[in-house]
Amino acid sequence: MRRPLLLSAAILALAAPPALAQSAQPDRAATGSGVVPAADNSAERPIRFAADVPPGGVLAIPMAGPQDISRVPAGLVEAVQAAVEGADFKAKPDQTLNLYGVGGHRRVLLVGVAEGDLDAVALANIGGRVAQATRTDAAPVAIIAQGFATSLAHPGAHVAQGVGFGQWRFDRLKTVDRTAPPLDPITVVAPEGTAQAFAREHAGLVEGMRLARDLITLPSNLKYPESFVAAARAAFEGVPNTRVTVLDEAEMRRLGMGSILSVSQGSVRPARMMIVEYRGGGDAAPLALVGKGITFDTGGISLKPGAGMEAMRGDMAGAAGVIGAALAAARRGATANVVAIAALAENMPGPNASRPGDVVRTMNGCTIEIISTDAEGRMVLADANQYAVDRFKPAALVNLATLTGAITTALGDDYAGLFARNDELAGRIEAAAQTSGDPVWRMPLHPSYAEDMKSPIADIANGTRAPGAGAGRGAHFIGFMTPEPTPWAHIDMAGVDGTDATPTNPGGAPGYGVRLFDELVRSYEQ
């Protein structure tokens, strides 16, 4: 189901550059201190399945309100009712209550859930909440995951998915007072067939999410375009019906990709464009998912303020999201064709860096006046989108990027901004967002943005100093570079890329987009 040692070794064997085909550029050789951490995340509890409640250990019981004892084992009903009444426990979705030493269990954990029909997100939240609440319990854990009001088949498999999400941690770089968490299993108590449903429909999604979160969190001395490629290659090793192609700078230069190369030219870490193809849908045109992969963003010559710049190691979350989603689709054998492209570069203010006022040429022949070198995400996507359209003739193309602070001003951390020039594609994405729990809010592509982005010396500018709709202007730029009539959409995820804890995220990289695109891929299945 998972290969943590393989993935971790790939991600952290990044002290030395991986052996990849690239042009001889001794002045661009990857550099660093040469002394790097080498460790692994602590192991997670194995997920098991059973039809009956195992004895002892910790038992988690979901309750939809204080009167709901439908999942409480007969021998615990009296104790549970007394505890609920004594604590005035309302069993709301954000509430838990502990009982100790009853019914032969070390601890009984009552978990509030919503009343009425439970959707996939609510079910996953149950598993995630239990996984987090029992993280330090040195005992086996069981969750009663049956008897829910839901229209979903195998609800216990969704609960198990949440367990997988909620267990994620990134502790591989800690060495002082690091205590390995308990490895006793988490057993999902559910009807026969649940284990098979989890393995078939959900285990790959958990793996894709883990890969994305690990990549986003990894510091940028260990994560750069070449090492991102190495980690992703390892994740797809042996996965049926997949092919990985990597364009180095020499190949990108041959293809005329001056836009992405203009971003990387200030860094000693050369750019890469990674293409993962998964074929499960016969001869159907693929769904293309293209992610921004800035492995560190200083802003270049248009330097960002120093406060908080360390978070810019995560400016490749879009690329991690599309790669994780492709892995999820491939692992479950989706009956669709998917192409995931990670446009990877490091944006640094080196001696060869692009300057504001420079004009560069893209793969499609358009010229761009660089107003700000900190508007680099749209630059790498311009060439990646053209490549996707030329090479794969996709049924639709969707971008995912931490593109603008302006979208956070507009939507806060509640929604990613969705821009689309195709209503049918926008509808698919909105439906996928509703089901997956990765929220989007559709934003306008106003005709005035074209006027705002005009350049007096090039076909388009990559920004403007005038106040206004920064997120919309960025989206217009990407759309301008994406040939019609390809259905195209852009998701600006900068506002939802925070580190707040949720039931399925213990805190840290949320891995936004993996679940969203997993659902979107399903809408294209044959």
Description:
Strand 11 (359-361) and strand 12 form a beta hairpin. Residues 1-29 have low confidence and may be disordered. Helix 4 (155-166) crosses helix 5, helix 9 packs antiparallel against helix 11 and helix 10 crosses helix 16 (514-523). By secondary structure, the chain is an alpha/beta fold. The strands form three sheets. It has an eight-stranded mixed sheet with strand order 7-8-10-9-13-17-14-15, with helices on both faces. It has a six-stranded mixed sheet with strand order 1-6-5-2-4-3, sandwiched between helices. The protein has helices at 4-12, 77-87, 120-133, 155-166, 194-201, 203-217, 225-236, 249-254, 258-264, 317-331, 377-392, 406-411, 423-436, 448-452, 470-480, 514-523; strands at 47-50, 58-63, 96-102, 105-112, 141-144, 186-189, 242-247, 272-279, 287-297, 337-347, 359-361, 367-369, 396-401, 416-420, 440-442, 460-461, 488-492. It is built from 16 helices and 17 strands. The chain has two domains: 4-40 and 231-523, Zn peptidases (Aminopeptidase), CATH 3.40.630.10; 47-191, Leucine Aminopeptidase, subunit E, domain 1. It is elongated and about 80 Å long. Helices cover 33% and strands 18% of the residues.
